[in-house]
Write a structure and sequence with these properties.
The protein is an alpha/beta fold. The protein contains 2 helices and 8 strands, in the order βαββββαβββ. The chain folds into 2 domains: about 60 residues, 2,3-Dihydroxybiphenyl 1,2-Dioxygenase, domain 1 (Roll); about 55 residues, Roll (2,3-Dihydroxybiphenyl 1,2-Dioxygenase, domain 1). It has a 4-stranded mixed sheet, covered by helices on one side.
């Protein structure tokens, strides 16, 4: 038997309890991600859900323990330089990443320290 994966469905990032409005400012207003309604059975858990391209981004709430980590989602974009300039114009912290062949990429950080990578593929 094997597992037959169809596609990535969602990614979850976490924010501190009670910070949904701050997260909404960043993800909805600054990034322009489309918020979607969570199932009624999960509303009491807090957090937010978004549609990003053809996947979902779930923003959960938990007690955040500050630690360095390599975990992150990566989103493929069409014009990485425009995306970077937009984020910089909004004073979002950007981090240059180690180059890899045929990929332009950088990361940025949400207000809660979550690292998010943007990349553009080229041949």
């Amino acid at each position: 038997m094997k597992i037959s994966v169809k596609r990535l469905h969602h990614i979850q990032l976490c924010i501190p309890f009670g910070k949904e409005n701050r997260a909404r400012e960043f993800y909805s207003n600054l990034l322009g991600f489309k918020e979607i309604t969570k199932p009624a059975s999960l509303l009491a858990n807090g957090g937010l859900w978004y549609r990003v391209g053809d996947i979902e981004l779930h923003i959960g709430v938990e007690n955040i323990i500050e630690e360095k980590s390599k975990r992150h989602p990566a989103f493929e974009v069409e014009d990485i330089e425009d995306a970077k300039q937009y984020l910089l114009s909004k004073k979002v912290r950007v981090k240059e990443e180690t180059p890899i062949p045929n990929v332009n990429r950088f990361s940025f950080f949400d207000p809660f320290g979550n690292r998010i990578e943007l990349l553009e593929l080229h041949s």
